[in-house]
Design brief:
heterodimer, A: 472 residues, alpha/beta, 5-stranded parallel beta sheet, 19 strands, 31% helix, globular, B: 207 residues
C-alpha cells in the first residue's frame, strides 16, 4: 500500500529531475511565460554568459504590464516602449515564441495562458510575476519567480526549489447569489491573513469550489499570493477538461483523451495528510471590500473597519482617509477599475454589463473596463457588451494590466479613491497616493453606477436589462 | 554573485509588518532594463514627499541610518509582487541583510540570489535589535553567516537558521545556473523519459 498523496505531492514528484543534498529538488518546468518587465535582465544574463534558451518550444512571451490600454494604444510612456522593444529584440535573438502587441491574442499573460491552452493540467508553470498562481486553477503547479530564476529557467528549463508545505482550504456549501469567487478569495485572505499561506501551496476544495467555473477558479487561485502562498490549486475535473478541449495549444483527438486519462489521476488521495487544513462555510461569505493597505484588511459590505486597530492598521487608515469603526459601504469613489489578471475575463465583463445595463456611471466617476486579452475583448464585442458599457458611460479599453499596478499611463492621482477588481491595495499600488478598495466585478460596477461603495445586492432593479447571466 | 560572509554595520529599524515590494520599489521604477541604479528609488513613496524632497522623518533619511547596511522589520517582509527589483534596490542602496520575523517566499529567494541575506528571528528578538539600532552610530550589529549568529552591540550572540545549500552558495558567491548545469545529463534524461512516457505532452512551437 503506497502512502496517500496530495495533489501537490503528485505534481511535485512528476517534475523532480534530481534531489539535491539537503532536500531541495531540481524541478522541471513545463511552461515559462515571459513578459517585458521582469525579463530584460534575465536575457542580458544569458547573453553575458553565452547561454541559449534551452526550450524555446516551452516558452512564450507577451507584453502586458506597461502597454497602453487606451483605444488605439496611444500614449505609451517612453521607458515602457524601450522595455517593449527590448522584449521584441530578445525574443528575436533567442528564438522565443512571441505574441505581438497587435495580435488579437495579446493580453495579460495569466489570461492568455489558459485561454490558448498553453497552460494545462499537470504542468509546472512559472513566470516572473507573482500572480502566476492563477494557472493553478487548471490543476497545474504554477508560481511566480524573480528575474534570476527567469534566467535560470531560460537556461536550464528547471528551478532549484524546496518543496512547499501543503495546505487545504475546504469551502463547504454553496456561495449565495451575488457572492463571487473574488468575495470568497477576499474572505479567505481576511480569515487567514496576508502571510497565512506562507511557504505553502493552497489546494482549494469543497462543494463551493467544485461549483465555480474556470474563471472563478482562476480568480481564487490568482489571489493565493495575497495570502502569502506560493501557489493555489484546484484539482482538475470535468469542468477543467471541458475548458481545455479545443484550445489552440491543447492536445487534440486521441492525444487529448490520453491527456485526460492522466489528468484524472491528479487528485488528492483519501486520507492524504496536509500540513494545515482550514474549513470555510460558503454561507458565511458576503460581498467583500478591503478598507486597508493589505489585502487581508477587508470586511463584508455590511461590516466595517474594526473599532480597535493596531499601529500598522492605524497607518493604513490614515493613508485611506478612513476612521476606526467606519462602515465600508458609503464611501464616495472617484475611479472604478475593472480588469486585471484577477478579474479581466469574459465572465467578469458579463457581470459588469449586467449591472451597467439600463444604468449610468455616476457623475464625476471615471470607470474603466479593461479586457484581459484581445480575445476577451472580441468576445465581449460579439456579445454587444462593449455597447452596453459605453452606453452606460464606461471607458472600453484595449487589453493589458492597466491600472492594477501604476506602471503604465493608467494611474490614480494622489487622494483618489478607487473601486478596483484587481488584487492589491498596497500604498501607491495604483499610483502615488491612490486609495484602493478591492472588490468583485459586480461590486465595482455597483460602485460605478452609484458613485459609492454599495452592496450590489441592494441595487434597485432597472427595466429590461439588455442581457442577464447567473452569478457564479 | 558577491559573496556574503560577515557584516558589521549600522542597522535601520523599520517597525512595520507586511512591508510589500510596491513599498520597497514602486512599479513605475521597474521600467528599466538594468539591475543597477534602483537604490535612489528604494522606498520612494516613504522616502520622498510629493515635491520630491526627502521626508525628514523617514529612517533612511536620518543619520546614521543613511549608511545602514542592515534593515530590521516586522512580519512578512517583501510580500506582494515577484519583482527582483526589490532586492536590487536594497542592494544598490547598500543594504546587505534584512532581519525580520518572517519573509515572503519570492522575496526571500530573490534576496538570496543577490547576496542579500534574509535572517528570520522571533519578533521579540527583532524588537530588541531595533532597540539596539535606535542607539545610533556606535550600535553596530554583526551578522556572521559562517557561524550563523547575529551579534548585538552588547556582544550577545543570537543564532539563526539558514538552508545549508543557500549558506554555501552565499559564502562562496555561487550562482544557481552554474550549479544546475552540472546536472544537465539528468535534465536531458528527464526530457527523454517524458517524451516516451507521455507522447501527447504538447509544446508551444509555432505560435
Amino acid at each position: 500500500m503506497t502512502q496517500p498523496q496530495t495533489l501537490l505531492d503528485k505534481l511535485w514528484d512528476a517534475h523532480v529531475v534530481e534531489t539535491l543534498p539537503g532536500g531541495a529538488a531540481i524541478l522541471y518546468i513545463d511552461r515559462h511565460l515571459v513578459h517585458e518587465v521582469t525579463s530584460p535582465q534575465a536575457f542580458e544574463g544569458l547573453r553575458a554568459s553565452g547561454r541559449k534558451v534551452r526550450r524555446p518550444d516551452c516558452t512564450i512571451a507577451v507584453a502586458d504590464h506597461n502597454v497602453s490600454t487606451a483605444p488605439g494604444r496611444v500614449g505609451a510612456e517612453a521607458d515602457g516602449v524601450i522595455q517593449l522593444q527590448t522584449l521584441e529584440a530578445n525574443v528575436a535573438e533567442f528564438d522565443v515564441p512571441y505574441i505581438p502587441i497587435d495580435d488579437p491574442r495579446q493580453g495579460i499573460v495569466h489570461v492568455i495562458g489558459p485561454e490558448q491552452g498553453i497552460s494545462l493540467p499537470g504542468m509546472t508553470i512559472v513566470c516572473g510575476d507573482s500572480h502566476t498562481s492563477t494557472h493553478g486553477a487548471l490543476g497545474a503547479l504554477a508560481f511566480g519567480i524573480g528575474t534570476s530564476e527567469v534566467e535560470h529557467v531560460l537556461a536550464t528549463q528547471t528551478l532549484i526549489q524546496a518543496k512547499p508545505k501543503a495546505m487545504r482550504i475546504t469551502v463547504n456549501g454553496r456561495l449565495e447569489r451575488g457572492v463571487s469567487a473574488k468575495d470568497l478569495a477576499l474572505h479567505i485572505i481576511a480569515e487567514i491573513g496576508a502571510a497565512g499561506g506562507a511557504g505553502s501551496v493552497i489546494e482549494y476544495a469543497g462543494e463551493a469550489v467544485r461549483a465555480l467555473d474556470m474563471a472563478g477558479r482562476m480568480t481564487l487561485c490568482n489571489m493565493s499570493i495575497e495570502a502569502g502562498a506560493r501557489a493555489g490549486l484546484v484539482a482538475p475535473d470535468d469542468t477543467t477538461f471541458a475548458y481545455c478541449r479545443g484550445r489552440p495549444f491543447a492536445p487534440r483527438g486521441e492525444a487529448f483523451e490520453a491527456a485526460v486519462a492522466y489528468w484524472r489521476t491528479l487528485v488528492t488521495d483519501a486520507h492524504a495528510a496536509f500540513d494545515r487544513e482550514v474549513a470555510i462555510e460558503a454561507a458565511d461569505v458576503a460581498p467583500m471590500v478591503t478598507w486597508g493597505t493589505s489585502p487581508d484588511l477587508g470586511a463584508p459590505i455590511n461590516g466595517g473597519v474594526p473599532f480597535e486597530v493596531s499601529a500598522d492598521q492605524e497607518r493604513a487608515l490614515d493613508y485611506m482617509a478612513l476612521q476606526p469603526g467606519q462602515a465600508v459601504a458609503g464611501s464616495a469613489i472617484d475611479v472604478v477599475f475593472i480588469g486585471s489578471c484577477t478579474n479581466g475575463r469574459i465572465e467578469d465583463i458579463r457581470a459588469v454589463a449586467d449591472i451597467a445595463a439600463g444604468r449610468k456611471v455616476a457623475p464625476g466617476v471615471r470607470a474603466l473596463v479593461v479586457p484581459g486579452s484581445g480575445l476577451v475583448k472580441a468576445q465581449a464585442e460579439a456579445e454587444g457588451l462593449d455597447q452596453v458599457l459605453i452606453g452606460a458611460g464606461f471607458e472600453w479599453r484595449e487589453a493589458g494590466c492597466s491600472m492594477c499596478l501604476g506602471m503604465n499611463p493608467d494611474k490614480l492621482t494622489a487622494g483618489q479613491r478607487c473601486a478596483a477588481t484587481s488584487n492589491r491595495n498596497f500604498e501607491g499600488r495604483q499610483g502615488p497616493g491612490g486609495r484602493t478598495h478591492l472588490m468583485s466585478p459586480a461590486m465595482a460596477a455597483a460602485a460605478a453606477v452609484t458613485g459609492r461603495i454599495t452592496d450590489v445586492r441592494t441595487l434597485e432593479p432597472v427595466a429590461a436589462p439588455a442581457r442577464r447571466t447567473e452569478y457564479a | 554573485m558577491r559573496p556574503f560572509t560577515t557584516l558589521t554595520a549600522i542597522a535601520a529599524p523599520m517597525p512595520a509588518a507586511n512591508v510589500d515590494t510596491d513599498k520597497i520599489i514602486p512599479a513605475r521604477f521597474l521600467k528599466t532594463i538594468k539591475r543597477s541604479g534602483l537604490g535612489q528609488h528604494l522606498f520612494d513613496g516613504l522616502r520622498y514627499g510629493a515635491n520630491g524632497a526627502e521626508a525628514p522623518d523617514f529612517v533612511l533619511n536620518r543619520e546614521p541610518y543613511r549608511r545602514a547596511e542592515i534593515l530590521i522589520a516586522h512580519d512578512n517582509f517583501g510580500c506582494g509582487s515577484s519583482r527582483e527589483h526589490a532586492a536590487w534596490a536594497l542592494l544598490d542602496f547598500g543594504i546587505r541583510c534584512v532581519i525580520a520575523p518572517s519573509f515572503a517566499d519570492i522575496f526571500h529567494a530573490n534576496a538570496l540570489k543577490n547576496g542579500v541575506l534574509p535572517v528570520a528571528l522571533p519578533r521579540a528578538v527583532c524588537d530588541a535589535l531595533m532597540a539596539d539600532a535606535a542607539l545610533g552610530e556606535n550600535a553596530r550589529i554583526t551578522v556572521d553567516l559562517e557561524r550563523q549568529v547575529v551579534i548585538r552591540p552588547t556582544g550577545e550572540e543570537i543564532s539563526f537558521a539558514v538552508d545549508p545549500m543557500r549558506r554555501r552558495f552565499l559564502l562562496e558567491g555561487l550562482d544557481d545556473i552554474g550549479q544546475t548545469l552540472q546536472h544537465e545529463t539528468a535534465i536531458t534524461a528527464f526530457e527523454a523519459k517524458r517524451a516516451t512516457d507521455r507522447p501527447w505532452w504538447p509544446t508551444i512551437a509555432g505560435v
